[in-house]
Amino acid sequence: MDKVSFLQEKSAFHMKYPDQSDLSFYRWFTEQHPDEAIGWYHLGREREARGETDQAISAHRRALQAKAGPYYNDAREAYQALLRARKQQEWRKKTRLLLASLLFLYFQFAFSPGLLTEPAKTTKSQATSIPKPTTIPERPHVEVIAVPPNLSAEERATHVRRYVESRRTALSQPYTVIVVPEVPGSPLFTPLLFYQPREVLGVMRYNPLNRTVISQKWFDHAGRFEQEPMLMSARAALEQEQLTLQHVLILRNALFRAYGQKGVLPSHLTDLAGAYPTNSLPQIPAPLTELGLFSYEYRPKAFRPESAWASIRDVLPLPGYPEPSVPLEPLQIHLSQSTRTLSLVSGAHLVRSYPAGIGKNDSTPEGYFTIKQKISRPRGHDNIYGTRGLVFSGNGYAIHGTNHPASIGSEVSLGCVRLHNRDVEELYSFVSVGTEVVISDTPAPAKPWSNPAPLVLAAGPKEETPDVIYNWLH
Predict the structure, then answer these.
(1) Rounded CA gap, 139 and 21, in Å?
(2) Annotated catalytic, 416?
(3) What are the pLDDT digits (tens) for 235-250?
(4) DSSP line for 353-419
(5) Most exposed: 7, 341, 404, 418, by fewest CB within 10 Å?
């Protein structure tokens, strides 16, 4: 619909309902024409003018999911501007809180009457309102960083020594750094949280308390060096840390998306593993035996709606390991049509990278979408959808498996995104309903990428829809 037709609709509405506001018209119009971006765009602008930022973001996102039209680019710019503004607002809020805390501590120390004053008693209700996280013994921490390829072994040792002396200064126990060759598209000297080091250039164990190198081993060229004792123990510890970090990321994302969908957190973690269509996750991941936990700690009383994602870290703590120096963010799926690569990302962190099959003749839509349904073993003729399906558009678009693995990496479908069955099962395990999907021609962030050991949460019959035959654009 063009602007003139839209304004005619608006004029007719106000003539019929003179007491109604523009907001009422925009809400009515989007109900009558849910596929028209122009209505969602103006609804978003109206919400934004009223200071209703979350509703404005939601409206602009719906505009990006509508059919292409003259207001698509306007909606995308408005959506991105609101996201940037919200992030800046969160940073300003954090800065104000930090300054307030520093001032509070200053006045406490500057004007404290001393030890003769009896400390104020804490009431029982105050002490138990938000329980403290369970104390878990620190586990061996390992970081993977990439370095430029043209450094000698001596130069590598020097640069990595500078890295450990300037980063992670708050750590209180020795940790290990595995050094790998530069990964195209990824930053240097920055922890690669979800990278499996195959070829290695060196390894260093460092004590941040006395700033000394405990041990180190450097190689003249990159290789696997699987029998090197220092690397063997570091790889084993890294695998355990990555597994725990991935479990926590899966659960935090599911909690955040559940709050975005329903406005409240679930009462229990197990509520996330419901039957279709409320199946956020196939099951709740279980912690490592070494952590001494029966389940991950869940503290919903620590949730703060005004800082929803930031407070999820307190709601579901990371046990046994330090929080990443570059914070985790809600999961997103990014599909690069130019490289036919599907990436699962958490802010700046690449979590997984998969080859994908996409639609021929530009039939895979570009834009911002969300996962609306998750189906295990979706029915279709000849098992055409493989073992898992994630619907991201009401027009028949889905990310699914395939019975034709040779098609992966090609432009062959009618619009859907195909993955190998093993990859879509893993993606299905990570993401929950409400997770965002971004499809564009932007190149993938890192290629090639070495995914960690596969992580698949088994799906059961409760997530299947045996009576439904799907007709996705395969």
Answers:
(1) 59
(2) yes
(3) 999 999 999 999 999 9
(4) EEE-BEEGGG-SPPEEEE--EEEES-B-GGGTTTTEEEEEETTTEEEE--S-GGGTTSEEESS-EE-
(5) 7
Task: Using the CB atoms, write b or e for 358-385: b if 16+ within 10 Å.
Answer: bbeeeebbbbbbbbbbbbbbbbbeeebb
Q: Which residue type is seen at 309?
A: W
268 a catalytic residue: no
* Side chain identity at residue 113, one-letter code: P
pLDDT confidence of 120, banded at 50, 70, 90? very low
Contacts of the segment 417-422: beta carbons below 8 A, 24+ positions apart = 417/335, 417/342, 417/356, 417/357, 417/358, 417/364, 418/356, 418/357, 418/358, 418/386, 418/474, 419/342, 419/354, 419/355, 419/356, 419/357, 419/386, 420/354, 420/355, 421/386, 421/387, 421/388, 422/454, 422/456
d(Cα 278, Cα 7) in Å, to the nearest integer?
39
Between strands 367-370 and 436-440, the pairing is antiparallel
Going by C-beta distance under 8 Å and a sequence separation of 6 or more, which residues neighbour residue 175? Answer: 140, 141, 142, 143, 168, 205, 206, 208
Q: Which of 60, 416, 420, 474 is catalytic?
A: 416
Convert the pLDDT of each residue in 321-350 to its tens digit.
999 999 999 999 999 999 999 999 999 999
Which one from 400, 404, 420, 474 is the annotated catalytic residue? 400
Please tell me the predicted confidence (pLDDT) of residue 100: 64
Kindly state the tokens that stand for 126: 């105050």
Question: How many other C-beta atoms lie within 10 A of the C-beta of residue 220?
Answer: 8
Q: What is the rounded CA–CA span in Å between residue 242 and residue 197? A: 12
